[in-house]
Amino acid sequence: MKDILQVLEGRRAEARLGGGQKRIDAQHAKGKLTARERIELLLDEESFEEFDMFVTHRCTDFGMEQNKVYGDGVVTGWGTINGRMVYVFSQDFTVLGGSLSETHAQKICKIMDMAMQNGAPVIGINDSGGARIQEGVASLAGYAEVFQRNVMASGVVPQISLIMGPCAGGAVYSPAMTDFIFMVQDSSYMFVTGPDVVKTVTNEVVTAEELGGASTHTRKSSVADGAFENDVEALAEVRRLVDFLPLSNREKPPVRPFFDEPGRVETSLDTLIPENANTPYDMKELILKIADEADFYEIQENYAKNIITGFMRLEGQTVGVVANQPMVLAGCLDIDSSRKAARFVRFCDAFEIPILTLVDVPGFLPGTSQEYGGVIKHGAKLLFAYGEATVPKVTVITRKAYGGAYDVMSSKHLRGDFNYAWPTAEIAVMGAKGATEIIHRADLKDADKIAAHAKNYEDRFANPFVAAERGFIDEVIQPRSTRKRVSRAFASLRGKKLTNPWKKHDNIPL
Amino acid sequence: MFNKILIANRGEIACRVIKTAHAMGIKTVAIYSDADRNALHVKMADEAIHIGPPPANQSYIVIDKVMEAIRQSGAEAVHPGYGFLSENSKFAEALAAEGVAFIGPPVGAIEKMGDKITSKKIAQKAGVSTVPGYMGLIADGDEAVKISAQVGYPVMIKASAGGGGKGMRIAWKEDEVRDGFQSSKNEAASSFGDDRIFIEKFVTQPRHIEIQVLADAHGNCIYLGERECSIQRRNQKVIEEAPSPFLDPETRKAMGEQACALAQAVGYTSAGTVEFIVDGDRNFYFLEMNTRLQVEHPVTELITGIDLVEQMIRVANGEPLSITQDDVKLNGWAMESRLYAEDPYRGFLPSIGRLTRYRPPAERAVEGATVRNDTGVYEGGEISMYYDPMIAKLCTWAPTRTQAIEGMRNALDAFEVEGIGHNLPFLSAVMDHPKFVSGDITTAFIAEEYPDGFQGVELSDKALRRIAATCVAMNRVAEIRRARVSGKLDNHERKVGDIWNVAVQGESYDVSIAADPKGASVTFADGETLRISGDWTPGDQLAVMDVDGAALVLKVGKISGGFRIRSRGADLKVHVRSPRQAELARLMPEKVPADTSKLLLCPMPGLIVKVNVEVGDEVQEGQALCTVEAMKMENILRAERKGTVSKVNAAAGDSLAVDDVIMEFE
């Protein structure tokens, strides 16, 4: 008996060594952790339960039968993050470059199936050279099996991808269909075709980092939702994100004890809006002063900075935040910001996370680049996302809410539950100057008259009361009491039930 | 007594005057510019009158506008504060013409003391010690030697037209005088076209010590001890204290009596300050007299118990002083730290913007020290570019200097200011500097001790351990809370460990923690145990802790895997990790910050006034590249090294934020 137990331990030890000490050292030399080390840091200590440790590939071409390693380049299983269950797969670059074989894919599919069945998130750690070329179409089939499961799991359990090494070719499309992608600065990259192919086909000379590094995908392409300094930080921050998310669409978002007074008054918010309507201010200050313990987890921080998206907690409960940022492009809506916010709103709605919308929007960005780029359809995405969302929706207009952008930003008309405005709010079709020049076109040449008209327009419309008179604004609130009002609003909505008409699925303007 | 006074000032000093006026039952009128519409002094005053656009030369120092405000409000007297119109004799005259009392000295005294040469002559006549020297023309080296012997070595040989150190020599003996005289003369001739030279005593180890005087219109004049103001940065006072750690009672008395003699010689009334320079042998020499309330007056108030503003108001009202020289007793020690909106990590450049957080320490007695904070701002207020960057004067009083310094350290630690750059860390650093603590200071202290500017403080092992242990205790609270989230797998909860590693300031500490209801004991690998208690909970930005019986106040921020801790002038990233996390974290590569040496970044928010170079220009090290205006200051940005301009991103008139790229180099 003892011998048999020793055999097991021996096999486990061999499996844990993956591609061997030399390759582990090489991985470390690149500033990267191994697949198992990453799982250790991602999960609660000693909570990992591994599946399929002894799986090996079945390929016999190109001498592959001589090159079998336990686990076949991916470590899979489940464990807990702060006691809550998650499923995880972590590709092992030390084993055949982490390449994806038929069996490698099967291991991933197994935990994805279990995750959907049992209602827990899937966290994928990607570090792979790509398809296992020796296996040919079997490898491609493996990818597609994973893709199909990504699609099925979407909206059922949260899916999070960590890119911690290369992720190229078809491999990119699995993370692409997950809810969040996080990268590691300097040691990860993602692209459909690499620099060599790019050079051959288009004559462009570009490095892997420039083509698909963390900076590219968090600032330019918006493929990634965030980037971290190294593996340790990335894994710690994914733990932090998971603390905000429900385990599945069958469960409510998590609640945790909080140490902040829901009625906390912030007198400094009374002076947040500058005297001059054209002076920007930092919307993040408002977010941090509303949130429990000033804790905010920002998503896509470096992309389309004219809109802010992320998670906070109110009374310990997760709330998704969408806020215009007047510091960037005056907080206008454009193609990028609409797409960014729309995707975020849909994620929140899919997982029953209430949405807080903070509005200071002068309108949509004008220009040929916007129109040629299809701002109509992209802007419509955000409108659509808000319109279909059935989660609790609370909106605070701090300053400008002009034109169609007013409608888009979780207005009363899109089934906003609580629509508050600060006394500084200006809810109108457009600013006074523009409006006057249209309404009083005949007086355009008379500067004095135009100024007088503009003043009249401002007095009448540059305030929240016209909207409040019609009930489009539920109440005008003191800035200082925003946290209290918003907390109470969400508290009152905990039992909200709203269902959209049955349909196979909608047809959001993609 | 007056029914209503107008304060012709803004900021903390206006607030300071309003407080005393209200305590005396006097109504107050504030004046404000557009930039100060929501300022604290406006909120505090009984009424407020708008006097124009933000620049002071279009508002606060326009005599006509202030006079109009006085007429409009019906104020019977005016307190000018410091700066602005406080030493403007025309303003005092205008007030006199309309029968409005000036809470300050008579016009004549302002005029006489306002001129450097006149004031020095009057001082000499009044028997006040002045820097010995020879003001006349010196013909040759022999005469220079003769004069130097009379003045006493060391001497300073100066060009009459001199400035900026040109034509200036210090001589310690005869032949140095001969050489120095000739070279100064040559340099002066070539630099200024004027080779007149004069000689005065060179004051070694100079300290700036000033005497507070108080005089009434009935011939009474008393002195309220001295203030030591040697901690200065480019002639801007930073830290003051009273009394001076350097003066003995005899010197104090001599200085005080001379100060009074000077005040009486010019018929001075109200509060005034006579500034002296004091050398290493306690010889003191008159510098100038400030005919107003000084910024640093609170330290005098704290050690004498006399409200100077109240005295000024009473004197202006014609009352005789109720205090005699014998009543003046110096009690204990007071420190003042000036909190400036200047970023010490960026060469003390001015910083403007919104105070997203502003929480001064409570004004009360804590552990033997009394805290006083004179301020003119509030959380959510704005530091504008138009005025003095001083935002508060934090004072502590205690029976001894050591206790006053310790009180100041704690008060600085507890002072929360966010949203702008400020000099709190620098002030903390000075409070911990051994030379400052010993009282061995001169006006050159900052220039000598921080020759390359301020880069923050390296904490000692002892201080780091206290912080490390506290962070482990705080981290434990945070981790236990995280493990209490809903939706856990029943019976398989996460257990928060007791063994941790703390990485801070390049050090790594392995510790274990044992918690109990009253706090926690943190034990280091070498067996040292620190006992931590405090009521910090996650989200608190100030941790008021007790470590082994001594207070530890930390500013706490979040970073991934730990805390950002600010304390005692240090700004630390503290990572608290499990042993396994720590082991793996050690495998992570050091990231080198991006190379910005080929970029010219805007060091402060401001307006580009001028761009001096174009694309393709070759620039030399030190060459002016452009001018940025901020806080009324024109800051010239210069090339750090030789290079060629490859791109210019900004033009005159552009408003830039910190770290915006102004231009790039090849």
Topology (elements, then pairings):
The complex is a heterodimer of chains A (510) and B (666).
Chain A: H1 2-16, H2 21-29, H3 35-42, E1 49-51, E2 74-81, E3 84-91, H4 102-118, E4 122-126, H5 137-153, E5 159-163, E6 166-168, H6 173-176, E7 180-184, E8 189-191, H7 195-202, H8 208-212, H9 214-220, E9 226-228, H10 231-242, H11 283-290, E10 296-299, E11 307-314, E12 317-324, H12 335-350, E13 355-361, H13 368-372, H14 375-388, E14 393-402, H15 403-408, E15 418-421, E16 426-428, H16 432-439, H17 447-461, H18 465-469, E17 475-476, H19 482-492
Parallel strand pairs in A: 3-4, 4-5, 5-7, 6-8, 7-9, 12-13, 13-14, 14-15, 14-16, 15-17
Antiparallel strand pairs in A: 1-2, 2-3, 10-11, 11-12
Helix pairs in contact in A: 4-5, 12-14, 16-17
Chain B: E1 4-7, H1 11-23, E2 27-33, H2 40-44, E3 47-52, H3 63-73, E4 77-79, H4 89-97, E5 101-102, H5 107-114, H6 116-125, E6 133-134, H7 141-151, E7 155-163, E8 166-171, H8 174-192, E9 197-201, E10 207-215, E11 221-233, E12 236-242, H9 249-265, E13 270-278, E14 284-290, H10 297-304, H11 308-316, E15 333-340, E16 342-343, E17 349-350, E18 353-354, E19 357-359, E20 365-366, E21 369-375, E22 382-383, E23 390-398, H12 401-414, E24 416-418, H13 424-431, H14 434-438, H15 445-449, H16 461-482, E25 499-504, E26 507-516, E27 519-524, E28 529-534, E29 542-547, E30 550-559, E31 562-567, E32 570-577, H17 579-585, E33 599-601, E34 606-611, E35 618-619, E36 624-630, E37 633-638, E38 643-648, E39 655-656, E40 661-665
Parallel strand pairs in B: 1-2, 1-4, 2-3, 4-5
Antiparallel strand pairs in B: 6-9, 7-8, 7-9, 10-11, 10-13, 11-12, 12-15, 13-14, 15-23, 16-17, 18-22, 19-24, 20-21, 21-23, 25-26, 25-32, 26-27, 27-28, 28-29, 29-30, 30-31, 31-32, 33-40, 34-36, 34-39, 35-38, 36-37, 38-40
Helix pairs in contact in B: 4-5, 7-8, 12-13
GO molecular function (chain A): acetyl-CoA carboxylase activity; propionyl-CoA carboxylase activity; transferase activity
Domain CoA carboxyltransferase C-terminal (chain A): 264-504
Family (chain A): Belongs to the AccD/PCCB family.
